[in-house]
Amino acid sequence: MTSVRLHPSGHSVEVPQGATVLEALEKSGFALPNNCRAGACGECKVKVLEGEFDQGFVLDMALSEEERAQGFGLMCMAKPVSPELVIEWGTVDAKPKLFPPREGQPFVVTDRIDRTPRITELRLRPQRDAMRYWPGQYVMLGDPAAGVPLRSYSIANAPRSDGEVVLQITRQSDGLTSNWVHDTLLPGSKVKINGPYGTFIGDPSVETPVLCLAAGSGLAPILALTEAALRRTYGEAVTLLFSAATQDDLYDAGMMAWWSARHRNFRYRPTLTRGTPKDPKGLQGRIPTLLPTLFRDLSQHSVFVAGTPQFVADCVAAAKALGARSELVHTEGYYPQSPPLTPTADQLVSCGTSPPAAR
Ligand code: FES
Questions:
Q1: Which residues, judged by CB distance below 6 Å to any ligand atom, belong to the binding site of ligand 1?
Q2: What pLDDT does 357 receive?
């Protein structure tokens, strides 16, 4: 048995015979961003500080000679051949490091789907390099040169091999940017985005049941986090409570049904704050009020909450009243006009000399 030690936290992960470093990390909850799992995209690149590993066959565009010489490797294909590998992963407290945000990244709107009367979904693909991000992070979108201010929108999908980014944008009656999106952006439109930003990414090393609470377009980052957790075959229960005003405001029912059918540990419970649900077993009422009727004890849960600041505050209070621990509660309150949170140098990953390969 070999092991991988994470620097600088010192956490150690055992690597079973024949397993890749990525598989071993995922099994222990230390998820690495990844896409192709075949040495082709460069998403799982990390720096190896000590030890030897068999890199297997990977494409030069995903890992250049220069990066190999600097000690970088692709963990989806890497298998340790020395008793211990030491890799750069995360911060001192074993939280993941962030990818450096970039401004003015060109994307094309490849599709647009009106999810509800007020929420439209944009599917954007990068013209050049894919943007590296953690599920739960957000981007800034707008067109300042045309008088449309930049506003923050959470990414609603986990990273994909084609670099597609999904944004779900609520029309605000007095919102210049959201009205610009709804009234002018169509498939084929070109936009520029800045990002990624934010730290609503939780702690991947924690293996606990997960409770996600979302209201309105707060569902977006929750979708990305849930997709990522289910993709890495997260074993604990994942429950998603989604609050919408009326039946018409519920969306993504198809994806929820698919996740429920495919993952026995996933449970989706929508609730309406106005009107009667179509499903006779459907919930009614605000999530903070419903929580004590659905859970007796949240002391062992990781809790993720996204929505308006008031929704977030009320949910956190309700979860804590049921024993939720502060260190396991992660929140994203929407202040659409706030400036992006730019990470400090020690929060950023080292990415090698070349950007991730274009996909
Ligand atoms: S996930 Fe490792 S190179 Fe794509």
A1: 34-37, 39-44, 62, 74, 76
A2: 29
